[in-house]
Specification:
This protein has 76 residues and is mostly beta strands. It has one domain. The protein is 9% helix and 55% strand. It contains one helix and seven strands, in the order E-E-E-E-E-E-H-E. The strands form two sheets. The chain has a five-stranded antiparallel β-sheet with strand order 6-5-4-1-7. The longest helix has 7 residues. The chain is globular.
Length: 76
């Protein structure tokens, strides 16, 4: 399953320890939810070849589920 960013979303690139702003139209792959402590949840996902993360409460309202044709599903 893929998700598309529908509103600007600021996420964390843990490898570079930097914030990244994803613009509407960005395609996200390999999305998964992880528990972070007792009461918070984080999303991890791939975008443009990078592993990124952000809090679930920010991710949900700024993305939507999409189905891509096989040619579109290639996330570089």
């Amino acid at each position: 399953m893929f998700r598309e960013v529908i509103a600007p979303l600021v996420v964390l690139d843990p490898v570079n320890r930097s914030r990244v702003r994803l613009e509407p139209g960005s395609i996200l792959a390999a999305c998964s939810i992880h528990r972070n402590g007792e009461s918070s949840y984080m999303m991890t996902f791939q975008c443009s070849g990078r592993s990124l993360t952000c809090p679930l409460f920010q991710f949900q309202p700024r993305t939507r589920s999409v189905e891509l044709a096989p040619a579109e599903a290639v996330v570089s």
